[in-house]
Design goal:
Layout lengths: L3 E5 L10 E5 L17 E3 L31 H13 L4 H6 E8 L4 H11 L16 E3 L6 E8 L4 E8 L2 H4 L9 E8 L8 H12 L2 H9 L8 E4 L16 E2 L2 E4 L14 E2 L2 E6 L4 E7 L32 E3 L6 E4 L2 E4 L17 E3 L18 E8 L3 E10 L5 E16 L11 E3 H5 L19 E8 L5 E11 L24 E7 L4 E2 L9 E5 L2 E4 L1 E11 L10 E10 L12 E8 L16 E10 L5 E8 L13 H4 L7 E5 L22 H4 L11 E11 L9 E12 L18 E3 L6 E3 L9
Parallel strand pairs: 1-24
Antiparallel strand pairs: 1-2, 3-5, 4-6, 6-7, 7-8, 9-11, 10-13, 11-12, 13-14, 15-18, 16-17, 17-19, 19-20, 20-21, 21-22, 21-29, 23-24, 25-36, 26-28, 27-28, 29-35, 30-31, 30-32, 32-33, 33-36, 34-35, 37-38
Length: about 775
Amino acid sequence: MASSVTEKAAPCCSSESPALAVSDWTQHPEEPAHNALPLHPIEVLPGSHPTTPAPKGLPIMVKSHTSHPLDPLSAAEISVAVATVRAAGATPEVRDGMRFIEVVLVEPDKHVVALADAYFFPPFQPSLLQRTKGRPIIPGKLPPRQARLIVYNRKSNETSVWIVELSEDHAATRGGHHRAKVISSKVVPDVQPPMDAVEYAECEATVKNFPPFREAMKRRGIEDMDLVMVDPWNAGYYSEADAPSRRLSKPLVFCRSESDCPMENGYARPVEGLHILVDMQNMVVLEFEDRRLVPLPPVDPLRNYTRGVTRGGVDRIDVKPLHVIQPEGPSFRVDGHFVEWQKFCLRGGVDRIDVKPLHVIQPEGPSFRVDGHFVEWQKWSFRVGFTPREGLVIYSVSYLDGSRGRRPVAHRLSFVEMVVPYGDPNEPHYRKNAFDAGEDGLGKNAHSLKRGCDCLGYIKYFDAHYNNFTGGVETIENAVCLHEEDHGILWKHQDWRTGLAEDGKIEAEVKLTGILSLGALQPGETRKYGTMIAPGLYAPVHQHFFVARMNMAVDCKPGEAHNQVVEVNAKVEGPGKENIHNNAFYAEEELIRSEMEAMRDCNPHAARHWIVRNTRTVNRTGQLTGYKLVPGSNCLPLAGDEAFFLRRGAFVKHNLWVTRYAPDEMYPGGEFPNQNPRVGEGLATWVQQNRSLEEADVVLWYVFGVTHIPRLEDYPVMPVEHIGFMLMPYGFFNCSPAVDVPPNASVLDHKEDGMSTKAISNGLIAKL
């Protein structure tokens, strides 16, 4: 799964105002930062910062910092952390058994981030700090960065968590000094950490070399083991036999038809009827049964997702190229992992001058017809992060609002889980309910993004570093990309008298694609829990659930906890004197006062949405400033209350959860969902505290999904399907923040023959 930050922009015939969007937000538990160390404070005069020449008598910062407190760990820092933990092993046997599941940044307290942004790193934002009497006091340097490591010991079957303190010297060295400081270590009992690709490969080899398995494949006409694909799946938890005292996998088996075709879709030939249980610690087959002989599905000529000629046809030749041209470069600026995007000017001032043109050029004409349009956008700045579990993380989202300075909107945004339960009660499909983040990792499965396919125009790429199973460093080049693309109309209104206009919205979306997990059937057999795709081949029904964790901070400076959440429902006015025409309806707000009240579901009949408001900041009408969460299409689990996957995934029972921020509450199903025997761990347990939300540092957990009833058009690879939600300002601004985007002097209408153009007047424009 590839992660990308997408900055969306307008074509040449628009107002040339790019729109910013974040796609595929794809965390490690935040632990209290171990930064209570003696720091020497220095006094800073208002308006100055430690990296600029200080007034006479004013000390400057003791030491510069090369890494922001929220920057992802570098490759050198990962190597140093691994070497430090390995060296701390009590015995050679312990050190030899160490396998490294995850090495991530310990995210510091929010006040440390605020100090860094105010005085240590550009663009230097002292306005983020709360006002205090007298001159602000800041430390001479920031606390050292720390790494958090999840270590699985293959010899003892123990999982442990380590905290290591890094330094600039340690971070700058790779393979040299590695005596960083171990802050703490603890064994976490009764858990299994995520599986690793190295284990997957070892498991496949173990199964393929198991004599009873080879005999079972021979019964199905397969003797060439190079054709066989063994996919280890986590065991889940269905009984005490799946307890985390053993590290287990229940693989699924598939078989290709050609050994010399690496692009063949082997998943189009599932092997049914085999029960396999593998001990992943010792790599031995614990259980094997050939329960039912189902013939392999016949070779389907449509099974491959390769060039048309390999499927008995040809690729289409009428798809014409589309080029994105930005002659002045992008409208965003990147400094390390900090991103700024456009400037904001107050009304009564001047139009923005830093919105650079983005041209969409199609030298052979378009493959479809469109109208010219403006692009929706707001002014944003944020930091780009990355973890092997979540993938893309976005920090410190804020809006530069003229004289009001930088106004925070959210502290941290990411996807923290993805669950895919299947709806077929038959073996093996009933146990397909992968927790893709918690059992495997979204980030470490990211792909390198490619120009022209994943990203267009001027592109800023971010590489991602993560550890492998043995502690080495892997690098995903171009794991995250920042670019501009067309996203539709910014604002528009047509008045028959004046021809003036306005409208706009911000939308976040997830694009789903991939291959189907198929099953094989006996000749003549049908099954109501799926769709027949080809002879002997069917696709079970299933659902996809995503969990977006949003630690909001609407108009809250670090240290402030002044947010609350209200639910808004549209109500129909009953008949009576106030509704004599029976057409009346209104919006009714209800404050969500506590966590037990905050387990909410979508209701399209009432246009239900939720608003995060600042309890102490108002707009010009006296209303509290806020941001609202508007659901898109959504669903709830289509499973009975006693379904086993709901023991570990109780969080999918509701579309929205709201909690009071706690640094160790990061994953909705708990940190270790793999083989987790504890019912309702995570969100469902945390909310039992029923903490107050009336004025708090709030976290929104939005669960959204899609019910997938497969169709033939989803085979062999599913075209993109879109789901998502919107985050929209609600009284955050005093008016539309987009009205100062300068219009084009003229808009050109290209005729279909491409031979001539004409200017469109300010008359009525019909959109086809």
